[in-house]
Every structure is written in structure tokens, then in C-alpha cells.
From TrEMBL:
Membrane topology, record value: Peripheral membrane protein
Keywords: Antibiotic resistance, ATP-binding, Nucleotide-binding, Transport
Lineage, highest ranks first: Bacteria, Bacillati, Actinomycetota, Actinomycetes, Pseudonocardiales
GO molecular function per UniProt: ATP binding
Name of the protein: ABC transporter ATP-binding protein
InterPro entries on file: AAA+_ATPase, ABC_transporter-like_ATP-bd, ABC_transporter-like_CS, ABC_transporter_ATP-binding, P-loop_NTPase
Family indicated by similarity: Belongs to the ABC transporter superfamily.
């Protein structure tokens, strides 16, 4: 039996007359990792803040863990873990103290809190930093500690707003591994991101958001199959010489970006050979698999990270 943990219908958030979230429908099921993918300003954080019961909705229906955030906020929050966009750790406390103090907020006993902190430091791979202050830790370590802290109350649903923004590739991969383990242990994840690789790595299902609306919904694989071809041929030309005219008929669809021309085709190498045969001479070329970035470009006409 699938259980719905978050159900939104025509969910709307207005700031004055500006509608940041414009009537979206979303359903998050128990055990899945669900993503909101979109550029800055798409309305992802506003949606997350409504789900985390810290920002009231302006319209529509919202149920979280079967309850209404308007009337059951505290009861819902007690069963949620929230990882905000910016780490808000106490820099002057140690790693262990950060976890213990937070645990006490949730009413855990001293003994329970001590035990939980040890378990969570192991999970976050911070055991050897237990008694170090937070301030000098790397960005990746701070993020892992913020996530560990959000797990103090054994939440059923963990909300992560841009979990890996600003981290280097190694730190991101370590974090993805931790999140994957959490999912395996049965925690439902909701993640906002503007990184398409993060959405592809972590999310079972996602919505692509743009301008407060949902542009598409599905698994990463489904979205790519529906909105892109199997392969993409990327051609780079000298500045000012970029033109799609000579290659337009070599692909199902052609996109001209400021620095590249993208040819959407089932067979990128064949398209490249055909382009060469007619005398097209790019500075460089690359054949790659289609990604969610291509899906976003198709749906919105823009690249995800402008
Ligand atoms: N408190 C607020 N008052 C007025 N406008 C706001 C407020 N919060 C957000 N907005 C506006 O709502 C829109 C959506 O913002 P939101 O933070 O939800 O987007 P986002 O997709 O999460 O992007 P980001 O990654 O930048 O957080 C933006 O245009 C933003 O400027």
C-alpha cells in the first residue's frame, strides 16, 4: 500500500500581489525521494517552507503526514526533519554539543540525547570530530552535521533545501551517499535543487518548476525520454560564427546557446559525421547522453544555471 505523506492541490503562495507559487499539485509518497528541480526564483523554497509549516499557504489545499499545517503545525513539525538552505549551526559549540542541544529541544532525556548524538556522528562520518568546534569545519562537514542534527527526532520525512549548493564534487558525492542510505533506511526525502545531476542521482520522481509553476513531472528517466532524444551532439564554433542553419536538418531539434549549438538526435556520431561531410568545422564537438538539463531547456527555452 502506498501512503501519501504530502498532498498539495492548487497550492499557492503570494507575497503581496506577487504569486511565487502559482497553484501547484504535488503528491509525495512514503519511501520515495522526491525533487523540486528549477532555477533560482522558481518557487522551490517557498513550497518547501509551506510543507515545513513555517510559512502559511495563501491558497489551495495542503496536507502533510495527513494533517493540515494551518491547524496542526507543531504536531507535523515534531515528525519532520528540516535542512535549510543555509547551515544554522551553533559555531561556538562542538559537533557533539550541537546534536545534544538540538535533541534536548525535542524533549529527549540526557541519556537518550547522548546515545543519539553518538549514532548520528557515526552516520555523518564526524565521530573523530566529536569534540571539535564547528566553526573551522569544512563546508561538507557542516552540511553533514546539519543533516545529522535534522535526524535527532527520527523524522519520517526529511526536507532538504539545496543540500549541496556550494560544495566541491567530493563533498557532494559523500553527501549523496549519506542521503541514499537514509532513503534505504525508510526515510522519505524531499529535495530542492537547481543541479540536474543531483536530481538524477537522488530523486525517484521530481517536478520541474519554473516561474512558480510545474512544467513537467516524472522520474528522471521518464522526463528525459519524453522531452529529449537519446543523444545530444554539442558543437562549439569560433565566437560570432555560431549558426544552426547548416546543421538544422541533421537532428530532430536544434538549440542555439550563446556558446554552443545542441543537436538532439538518436545517433550523435552519425550527425557529427554528416556535419563534417558537408564541410561544417566546429572548434570542438561532444556526443553525450541527454540529461535533465536538456529537459529543462526544452520545457522553458532556458538553461538551468544561467
Ligand atoms: N518573503 C518574500 N517576500 C517577497 N518575495 C519573496 C519572498 N520570498 C520569496 N520571494 C520571491 O518569490 C519567488 C520564489 O522564491 P523562492 O525562494 O521560492 O525560489 P527558489 O526556487 O527556491 O529559488 P532560490 O533557489 O533562489 O531559493 C522569487 O521571485 C522571490 O524573490
Amino acid at each position: 500500500m502506498t501512503t501519501t505523506l504530502v498532498e498539495a492541490e492548487a497550492l499557492t503562495k503570494r507575497f503581496g500581489t506577487f504569486e511565487a507559487v502559482q497553484g501547484i499539485d504535488v503528491e509525495v509518497r512514503k519511501g520515495e525521494a522526491f525533487g523540486f528541480l528549477g532555477p533560482n526564483g522558481a518557487g522551490k523554497s517557498s513550497t518547501m517552507r509551506m510543507i515545513s509549516c513555517v510559512s502559511p499557504r495563501s491558497g489551495g489545499v495542503l496536507r502533510v503526514l495527513g494533517m493540515d499545517p494551518d491547524t496542526d503545525g507543531p504536531r507535523i513539525r515534531a515528525r519532520l526533519g528540516v535542512v535549510p538552505q543555509q547551515d544554522n549551526l551553533d559555531d561556538e559549540l562542538t559537533v557533539r554539543q550541537n546534536l545534544e542541544v538540538y535533541g534536548r529541544y525535542f524533549g529527549l532525556s540526557r541519556a537518550a540525547v547522548r546515545e543519539k548524538a553518538v549514532e548520528l556522528m557515526g552516520f555523518a562520518q564526524l565521530t573523530d570530530r566529536a569534540d571539535a568546534e564547528v566553526e573551522p569545519l569544512s563546508g561538507g562537514m557542516k552540511r553533514r552535521l546539519t543533516i545529522a542534527r535534522s535526524l535527532v527526532n527520527d523524522p519520517e520525512l526529511l526536507l532538504l533545501d539545496e543540500p549541496t549548493t556550494g560544495l566541491d564534487p567530493q563533498a557532494r558525492h559523500l553527501l549523496w551517499d549519506r542521503l541514499f542510505r537514509l532513503k534505504q533506511s525508510g526515510v522519505t526525502l524531499i529535495i530542492t535543487t537547481h543541479y540536474m545531476d543531483e536530481a538524477e542521482q537522488l530523486c525517484d520522481r521530481l517536478v520541474v518548476m519554473d516561474g512558480g509553476r510545474i512544467a513537467a513531472e516524472g522520474s528522471p528517466g521518464e522526463l528525459i525520454r519524453q522531452h529529449a532524444t537519446r543523444e545530444v551532439l554539442e558543437l562549439r564554433f569560433p565566437p560570432g560564427e555560431q549558426s544552426a542553419a547548416e546543421v538544422r536538418d541533421l537532428a530532430e531539434r536544434v538549440e542555439v546557446l550563446p556558446d554552443r549549438v545542441l543537436l538532439y538526435t538518436a545517433d550523435g556520431e552519425a550527425a557529427l559525421a554528416a556535419a563534417h561531410a558537408r564541410g561544417v568545422r566546429p572548434v570542438s564537438s561532444l556526443v553525450r547522453r541527454s540529461s535533465l538539463e536538456d529537459v529543462f531547456l526544452r520545457l522553458t527555452g532556458r538553461t538551468l544555471v544561467d
